[in-house]
Amino acid sequence: MLKTFPKGGVHPPENKISSGVPIEAMPLPEQVIIPVNQHLGAPAEAVVEKGETVKAGQIIARSKGFVSANIHSSVSGKVLKVDKMPDASGYKQTSVVINVEGDEWLETVDRSKELKKNISLSGEEIIKKCAENGIVGMGGATFPSHVKLSIPQGKKCDVLIINGVECEPYLTSDHRLMIEKPEELLTGTSLLMKALGVNRAFIGIENNKKDAIDKLKGLASSYDGISIHALKVKYPQGAEKQLIKALINREVPSGGLPVDVGTVVHNAGTAFAVYEAVQKNKPLVERVVTVSGKGLDKTLNLLARIGTPVSKLIEYAGGLPESTAKVVNGGPMMGKALGSLEVPVTKGTSGIIIFRDEESRRKEKGPCIRCARCISVCPMGLEPYLLMTLTEKELYERAEKDRIMDCMECGSCSFTCPANRPLLDYIRLGKAYVGKIIRERKQK
Amino acid sequence: MNKLLTVSPSPHEYSRESTRKLMYGVVIALAPALLATIWFFGWAALIVTSVSVVSCIIFEYLIQKFILRIKPTITDGSAIVTGLLLAFCLPSNLPPGLVILGALVAIGIGKMTFGGLGNNPFNPALVGRVFLFLSFPAQMTTWPLPGGFNASFTDALTGATPLSILNENYDKAGIDVLMSDPELSMPGYQELFWGNMGGSLGEIAAFALIIGLGYMLIRKIITWHIPVSILLTVTVFTGILWLARPEANADPLYHLMTGGLLLGAIFMATDYVTSPMSKKGMIIYGTGIGVITVLIRRFGAYPEGVQFAILIMNAFTPLINIYMKPKRFGEEVKNG
Ligand code: SF4
Ligand code: SF4
Description:
heterodimer, A: alpha/beta, Rossmann fold, 4-stranded antiparallel β-sheet, 17 strands, B: two-stranded antiparallel ribbon, binds iron/sulfur cluster
């Protein structure tokens, strides 16, 4: 029996169309738009000005405060402007727009293909390198990695978890990385272990990626303390709390963090980025982005520079098909629909998924038949039908008691509901109100 | 690339399950029992069932269209399920007029007054059936014996159901005497299993109901919690009574296969709308139905208890839903 998390979950059609497509470097665009806020926490502060020439890898915005991250230029060229530009959320935010000229990198960056397995730095130095090079979680949450690696006083961490689950349908960027850069990924994992001071790391991979599991299993024996674990395919296994439960059977308390149960989770893509940052001194300026969808002629796994407009990626994949109705940034379960394609790829962009008309229409909603399916699939043990009703009736106090804030917005409930109730839409709204109430209470 | 794009919140992918598919799934699960009852009761069964189903659909349509003035939802299949279940609690010789009245009460009072599908506290089919039972006790308790398609409507043989015989003669004669009395012609396990006995349309053929249960479990229309907890409770409770006084009490197997217990446990207690939502809640509800059923059968005035037991527990469902929450993730922290 394969391991998985015990409560809830769904199995949406996997649609991993691009799983066999090797990673390909995307040609440089003419212009990149690099937002200063690509991470959770405080936005970085731009340190370049209009007209300045920059090299790839050069810092262009410096982190502000501990929970923040440096931003580097992904290209060489001239800064056209530092201005408010729309990002994937649809809101405008400060971005550095650079006109690309050539492809000149900072001399400190080692761009050779040579594998560097030898770890010479201390744990603290590794964390410092991550912070300098702007490493953030690449699974989508974009939490600054150096923060996650700094264990708060009084807490203990005894095992590192690497998330190679990629449970969202369509996405294959981590899958390809695990197959094509396994040694780098394992070295990255060793670096993270050293930074955390732990001697065990579990890499969890869903069983629909057998080739990645075999590859890493074959290599892992030469790395101390790293073990590879095949997991049953079930969404949302890539959610931190569910993955921890599946792999080491510990339950992160409500409102708590993984470190409360002695572990830290990093994404497989992050482990690779950490390798590059520490061993090659390369800042986080490019990432693998899956471009996929049933209407596309070819699907791709592109190594794209941060700041490349989404439209360029789609153009490279053959252009937007006639049938297109929706373009999603991220996976179909948790990704955001884009209103405009002139927004940049950022550190957290794992995929661009194109939906055809017939796939993107919502069905008419009916009355709740109280079938309890939403309860059965909620991995957090919540009652989505009730949270929706409480939000509709503006009974926020009860919604809080019924743990609305535990909802991680995985969408399993809306996915499942036979009456097509927009459960998560309402729960999000309820969370916003309850969150506000909680903040106000704290201020008093 | 100036296409207008749809922007909607996640998720962007939906399962293929729908209310309609679930309801028609229940209809399919009821099909074996329907075929069995037509086999045993012939035209009479067919007539009662069709009148019930058609009237439920029509009443739902009329009420939604002309009284509530909302878009009729008769295609969702729930009215068909109610119609079938109502027919399944009726005797095969019930006059069509009464069947129609039962359907009106089931849909009109049992379902629509509360706001339609999803809002009714009591199982609509049972509301209809209890109304008929209380208003027309004589017609509702004469049970024609199976005669297939050859039986005529008027002079069909009627007989008491096994449970009413047991109920009336409790303590008067030993159970062995009752079972072997040729005049009472109590059905044996064989008859109970295949359905060759007197009774309401849907309670007679145990095997057909069990096939339906299997289908609903495999198709994941229902979970095991409610039917299993009811059947287990009845088995344990009647088992204790039987072990204490085997000469006076029927054994658990006899109880399981009679009096519409299977029909109630598999198809009526599991109605989504009127049963609890959490697994813990479902088990409490099922256990409650089991206990009340046996209490009514053994100590109450009515020989058959499962339908009242379900209605009583329907009333507790909102309370159960409030107190029996699913286990929250990260609630009790047990780590190892
Ligand atoms: S899944 Fe939909 S219909 Fe079923 S209980 Fe939840 S909200 Fe109601
Ligand atoms: S309530 Fe939240 S956590 Fe539970 S299934 Fe719905 S979206 Fe996921």
